[in-house]
Specification:
The structure holds two protein chains of two kinds. By secondary structure, chain A is of the alpha+beta class. Chain A has five helices and 25 strands. A five-stranded mixed sheet of chain A has the order 2-1-3-5-4, with helices on one face. The chains are: A alpha+beta, B mainly alpha.
């Protein structure tokens, strides 16, 4: 987290706010509710109390405006800049402006007013931008569901105002995983149109062959309709589809888009009902089979016929000598299977039927 | 080091203008042209600052990752500086 220079903050814990005008995109009551909910996000974890004024000058004046809207800090039409706010202080200090050229919504179909308001009011209280992609105070917009603050945000605002003397029960989001954490394990690995996607918690890293530095993004900012937690994933390049597994459901993605008819139950693949979660999935390009791993067993699914091969499940350690432990994620490249388990990854040669190399899981992330 | 002697193809020019505007607004890149060599150095160091902030690979170049991030919807408050 960051604060503004000189840790600007309100000297009084009672802060006034006023909604000066409204966007036609939402009912007045919806705007009121979004702003109040956004303020409560911060008051739940600090001693701050927000008092609404209906006229006159409040500490935080909230308004909607387009392009040049009176503060010589113009907006830019649709997209791009969504809103801005000023750090605590007299006059324009604390004032919060929303770009009226955006489409404001209560859901994920456009820019969610509650999420943007919670971020901007963080500025109005003294928070600057965070470098943590999972933090509410991260500068780039992303739609998220559930409790909006990350531990990073709470640490930052409490460094300014202290904790709420009567703390509410809140469940902050864990901060973004550090790719070079020696204890890092993966949730799932898949290819996607030539890139490698690595899922961990509510984030994913995107590895591009020509771009050695992986880019970390929130799952929901790219695929709002899939869960925050991915158990397994694989790409069927012939169909240009990535299958995402979470619990007993699976989603099919075609690039950024969700394929119609999903989610489906994983049992449609022919898995027994007792299987409630898949640990790893990998498509073997040379055989056209997808291997699905759960606990100590695995299944083989024939993509061409859309059926599960007979004779499964089989024990992983029987068919993959050297792999006698559960698998978190799996990938396949040019005749080599890569099994990821906790902090280690095992390079397994299909031809010689043995593990030929063991590396750290996050060596794939240049650590 | 960048050389601007060769005219940029139009897409590059658009990207360059986008980056200049972005870095001026969010990273305090000085406005105006202060001589070609110095502005190239200032631009590169601001690109590095932005790449460091977003935990991208710090190259000082307008690579795809950097440009893609600059095009994302975001808050209008600067990331650094007064």
């Amino acid at each position: 987290y960051n604060h503004f220079p000189r840790h600007l903050k309100w000297q009084n814990n009672e802060v006034t706010f006023r909604i000066v005008n409204y966007t036609p995109d939402l009912k007045k009551a919806d705007v009121d509710r979004a702003v109040r909910k956004a303020l409560n996000v911060w008051s739940d974890v600090t001693p701050l109390i927000f008092k609404k004024l209906h006229q006159g000058n409040a500490d935080i004046m909230i308004s909607f405006g387009s392009m040049e809207h009176g503060d010589h800090n113009p907006f830019d039409g649709p997209n791009g800049l969504l809103a801005h706010a000023y750090p605590p202080g007299q006059g324009i200090g604390g004032d919060t402006h929303f770009d009226e050229d955006e489409h404001w919504t209560k859901d994920s179909s456009a820019y969610n007013l509650f999420i943007v308001a919670a971020h901007e009011l963080g500025h109005a209280l003294g928070m600057s931008h965070s470098t943590d992609p999972g933090a509410l105070m991260y500068p780039v917009y992303s739609y998220t569901t559930g409790y909006p603050l990350a531990e990073d945000d709470i640490e930052g605002i409490q460094a300014l105002y202290g904790p709420n003397p009567n703390p509410k029960k809140v469940k902050p989001k864990p901060d973004a995983p550090n790719k070079c954490d020696p204890m890092l394990s993966f949730d799932a690995v898949t290819e996607l149109r030539g890139e490698t996607i690595i899922f961990k918690d509510r984030f994913y890293w995107r590895l591009h062959p020509q771009m050695p530095e992986p880019e970390q993004t929130m799952i929901k900012s790219t695929w709002p309709s899939i869960p925050n937690k991915v158990d397994a994933a694989y790409e069927n390049p012939e169909k240009d589809v990535v299958i995402i597994f979470s619990g007993i459901r699976m989603w099919a993605l075609n690039g950024y888009n969700l394929v119609d008819g999903y989610p489906k139950y994983i049992h449609k693949l022919g898995l027994p009902k007792k299987i409630r979660k898949i640990d790893a999935a990998v498509y073997i390009r040379d055989t056209g089979k997808t291997l699905l791993f759960a606990d100590e067993d695995y299944w083989s699914y024939d993509e061409a016929t859309g059926t599960m091969d007979s004779g499964y499940p089989r024990a992983i350690e029987d068919d993959f000598p050297g792999m006698d432990d559960e698998i978190d994620a799996a990938a396949y490249h040019y005749g080599y299977l890569y099994f990821f388990h906790e902090q280690m990854q095992y390079e397994y040669s299909y031809n010689s039927r043995k593990v030929i190399r063991i590396m750290r899981t996050n060596s794939i992330l240049n650590c | 080091a960048h050389s601007f002697a060769v005219p940029l193809p139009s897409e590059d020019k658009d990207n360059f203008l986008l980056a200049e505007k972005y870095l001026r607004r969010f990273y305090g890149l000085p406005a105006g042209l202060q001589g070609r060599q110095r502005s190239a150095g200032a631009l590169e160091s601001k690109i590095k600052e932005m790449q460091k902030f977003f935990k991208l690979k710090v190259t000082g170049n307008l690579d795809d990752n950097t440009l893609e991030l600059m095009k994302q919807a975001r808050c209008g408050v600067p990331d650094i500086g007064e």
